[in-house]
Amino acid sequence: MSDLNHYSKIATELGVREKQVISTVNLLDEGGTVPFISRYRKEVTGSLDEVQVAAVRDRLQQLRDLDKRKEAIIKSIDEQGKLTGALADKINAAETMSILEDIYLPYKPKRRTKGTIAKEKGLEPLAQLIFEQNSIDLNKSAEEYLSEEKGVASIDEALNGARDIIAEWINEDAEIRKKLRQLFIEEGEFVSKVIPGKEEEAIKYKDYFDWREPVKTAPSHRVLAMRRGEKELFLMLDTGPDDLTATKIIEKAVVKENNTCADQVRLAVKDGYKRLLKPSMETEVRLYAKKKADEDAIKVFTENLRQLLLSSPLGEKSVLAIDPGFRTGCKVVCLGPQGQFLQNETIFPNEPQKKTMESGALIKHMVATHKIEAIAIGNGTASRETENFVKNIGLPKDVLVVMVNESGASIYSASDVAREEFPDFDLTVRGAISIGRRLMDPLAELVKIDAKSIGVGQYQHDVDQTALKNSLDDTVMSCVNGVGVEVNTASKQLLTYVSGLGPSLAQNIVAYRNENGPFKSRADIKKVPRLGEKAFEQAAGFLRIRNGKNPLDSSAVHPERYALINKMAKDMGVSVEELLKKEELLQKIPLKDYVNEQVGLPTLKDILEELGKPGRDPREKFEVFQFEDGINEMKDLKVGMKLPGIVTNITQFGAFVDIGVHQDGLVHLSQMADRFIKDPKEVVAVNQKVMATVMEVDLPRKRIGLSLKSDPFASNTSSGGRRERPRKNQQGNQKVAQESMEDKLALLKKKFGK
């Protein structure tokens, strides 16, 4: 099926012009990447941004997948000899996969069911007779279908078989399924109960021991929590509306009279709903809720990841990095301005060895020898103790001491990437190197770690892993290309995310660089084996070469526009170098004079902006942060303390903040601001520095409650908003499900293989 049918639909959904969609699809189909298209093809797309280009790409793929399924279904029905023009039109008109599958259901090859068995016994004509609901002598009609040979020994057996067939007709009715699907989504509820006897073992799911809430409004973190509790066999989870409401909808659709045949149809309705439709709809609505929860959770994760990847870099400084510890000591490494390894040692300044004099002397010697400008200390075990030690050994005042979030450093240490980079070092030394490099350039180091291990997600292991990976890859690529990559120092992992490259070409670039020395110009990149014109077009604008032959090579200006800039400089009577140094000249350039068929004002404005700050890092300037002195462990905390902290993770229900006690505190949504807010992202971002008030300290459960309000101890009726907590189910005595407890447990064990 042609994409032409989809352009208008996508344009309407995204609120853009159809021409923009067509142009974007053409660029994508030609191999264009989202960063390249949104940055360097604005005239073609009508200035669609990264989010819009990605949305066009993803929606078109969904519609193409739907088309493939339509083709497969039409082929299947045609092979059965049951395809009609009207049916084909109905299939082609289906706008969603669920509607399409409903249409296909009566024709879908299926295993033997009660209905098919009844048909084999010759009871379909009786079922049809009953379904017509005329006034007949039902018993007399049923007697005609008794057959010892076919296994129909009594009138009851004949009627049971006929009802089985009718139940399947009802189940396969696309209109009925559509109405029930809407009911399950609009009026369905999640009903969660603890499995008897598991109360103590399942204590972390205590909020869901007796819990119910609408499917329609359940937030993703609760949906995913309940599903996980069910999977771990701690909770029983039901999903659905009131059974009576559902059966009435079906009866209204199929019961037309008030006679004995209609009574049989009503019985078939109840059986068909309980045995076929309800389980099917429950599965669908759970998948619907799961997909919605996944989308929300993935969105939270990717937004957090973007903020973390774009954290302020310290830059090219000589750094001493420490991976702190107690018994096994602190691993210390020194790194050069480009992150190159210089030296490593192990010191024992903390308990139990407490060799502070020797450790201090060694640190000062390394600082002096390597002209260290900053010290990075991992924020794990013994971090605050190590920080206090470093600050008290008499280092020069201009040496920065910075705590670094080490989430994922241990994952990197054991990875193939780390082994390839540092085959002769053990895990702890690799971890210290990662901590130091993370301070210098968070983006360049974090791309080496599986994004799921960085620690800024929400139920990331419970969501659709393919969708999560695709979204995270998009985010990493967006950040890498947004910042730009120095091609002469970048790692293979960082180059992998550059538009148009990928792992193979990234490896080839590094190999060529190692063999031939640094690239002198962007044009030299074309010499890399297997890096063709298309890859160069996609990648060149995002690769930087500092101090190269052409000053534009350190900027985000694409090489395809160099000739245009040369003309601008010539028209102004200066060199390109002079044009870059004199902002007053840039302001005098008459942009409209340079508009042509290939280049419009959007691109010209981008070029002018870049010429004003060639190669400048778009990330915010680095600022030193310091935790409160003397507050090193949870036992040091007191309710009411105001402490500096760093936001480490954001969820739908609040934000986690590191206040320097080895345990992040939670700022609940209701404690985020003096005003009512719906989303924590309205007031905080990952890595943001905040002042937090300690509201609660629970040492046994290692929980810290924090507040960002100006007066958090004011009356709870103030404008801080309502606290979003699971509420006790008001209908705890109501029946949750039709199945018995034993049946439910058996289903859970069968489903999860335990």
Automatic annotation (TrEMBL):
One of its GO terms (biological process) is nucleobase-containing compound metabolic process. PROSITE patterns: S1. One of its GO terms (molecular function) is mRNA binding. Residues 640-709 form the S1 motif domain. Pfam families: HHH_3, HHH_9, S1, Tex_central_region, Tex_N, Tex_YqgF. SUPFAM superfamilies: Nucleic acid-binding proteins, Ribonuclease H-like, RuvA domain 2-like, Tex N-terminal region-like. Residues 709-740 are annotated as: Disordered. Gene3D superfamilies: Nucleic acid-binding proteins, RuvA domain 2-like, Tex N-terminal region-like, Tex RuvX-like domain-like, YqgF/RNase H-like domain. GO terms for cellular component: cytoplasm. InterPro entries: HHH_9, NA-bd_OB-fold, Ribos_protein_bS1-like, RNaseH-like_sf, RuvA_2-like, S1_domain, S1_Tex, Tex-like_central_region. It comes from the Bacteria. PANTHER family: 30S RIBOSOMAL PROTEIN S1, S1 RNA-BINDING DOMAIN-CONTAINING PROTEIN 1. This is Tex-like protein.
